[in-house]
Write a structure and sequence with these properties.
Elements: E1 6-9, H1 18-28, E2 35-38, H2 51-63, E3 67-71, H3 79-91, E4 95-98, H4 101-107, E5 113-115, H5 124-133, E6 135-139, H6 146-154, E7 161-174, H7 179-183, E8 202-205, E9 211-216, E10 219-227, H8 232-238, E11 242-245, H9 252-263, H10 269-275, E12 284-285
Parallel strand pairs: 1-2, 1-11, 2-3, 3-4, 4-5, 5-6, 6-7, 7-11, 10-12
Antiparallel strand pairs: 7-10, 8-9, 9-10
Helix pairs in contact: 3-4, 9-10
């Protein structure tokens, strides 16, 4: 019998007030999620929570029976950010999620670590090198699909787990520029923390008013939500270890519950797919999973090279 995948909750990608973050993780402690990633991964200017605050949340979640992982910054641009990274890697009693190769280098040969979807692992050879350095779990880059995952998961080094970004707006790119500040005609160094005004990012639309991308500080995301709950049977068949759900400001607990009930066989993937629709932000996509354009949506059962049109009305987040 194939094992059921664990559920993980990725780090919060947006900038929320401190009180909202603490309230959010209190509610998460009561869900069926197995693994929780904590920490700032996008912008070092988001300082409402200090390292001690993240560790306090980590202790609370661990006491609730969750596996806790501390996540690191994805794009390092200053010596101060490197210093913070070293501090996290040196003092954390928890496993670290390395989101760039600087963290991998610091942790290599010293502590077991996890890699996030921003670390470019495209082949088994890279997995083998990182496993020798201490990799315990890797996350498939979001632009890769089922065929690549199948090959890499089958040939991964012994003892290395595989995680898939299964729900959430896709983190597509990072830049030295802050697009949220730019949208308000503010320089990056004086952004006035405008990200606080957009708890699920700032929607970018085409001239035809179609939702296209989401601006989240220096991070660019997909406008649509990648939702792979309909592929739960495929994940179980492949023996994927962990499915990641990315937090959003509303209904994250309900999304976790549907994924949990689906993996347990309490509801079918098709039923979970139908019930999750009200909780999607700005439509649905799963194109990358099917080796197609990321913003596409396949209708189950998937038919290769015959994508069904996404007729869901696009709404502002």
């Amino acid at each position: 019998m194939n094992k059921k995948p664990k559920l993980s909750l990725g780090p919060i990608l947006y900038f929320w007030p401190r009180e909202q973050v603490f309230s959010f993780y209190k509610s998460i402690s009561e869900t069926e999620v197995d693994i929780v990633y904590l920490g700032e991964t996008v912008c070092s200017k988001r300082r409402q929570l200090k390292l001690d605050d993240w560790l306090e949340l980590a202790d609370m979640l661990q006491q609730a029976g969750k596996e806790v992982v501390l996540s690191t910054l994805t794009l390092l641009e200053a010596a101060s950010e490197l210093s913070t990274l070293r501090k996290i890697c040196a003092s954390s009693p928890y496993t670290i999620e390395a989101n760039d190769m600087a963290a991998v280098q610091i942790l290599s040969g010293k502590n077991a670590f996890v890699t996030g979807p921003s670390v470019n692992i495209y082949n088994p050879q890279t997995l083998a090198v990182l496993a020798e350095a201490g990799l315990k779990r890797w996350t498939l880059p979001v632009e890769l699909g089922r065929e690549t995952l199948t090959d890499m998961h089958a040939s991964r080094p012994e003892g290395v787990e595989t995680e898939v970004f299964a729900f959430g707006r896709l983190p597509l790119a990072y830049s030295a520029r802050c697009f949220t500040a730019r949208a308000s005609n503010l320089p990056k160094d004086d952004c006035q923390f405008r990200c606080l005004d957009y708890p699920d990012g700032l929607m970018l639309r085409t001239r035809d008013y179609e939702s296209f991308l989401v601006l989240n500080g220096i991070q660019t995301q997909s406008a649509k939500t990648q939702n792979l709950v309909a592929s739960m049977d495929a994940f179980i068949e492949l023996g994927i270890d962990v499915l990641r759900i990315s937090p959003q400001s509303v209904n994250t607990g309900k999304v976790i519950d549907l994924f949990h009930r689906c993996r347990q066989g309490e509801i079918s993937p098709a039923q979970a797919e139908a019930e999750i629709q009200p909780y999607l932000l700005s439509g649905e996509c799963d194109g990358y999973w099917h080796e197609e354009a990321g913003m596409n949506l396949e209708v189950a059962p998937p038919q290769k090279n015959k994508p069904a049109p996404n007729e869901k009305k696009q709404e502002c987040a």
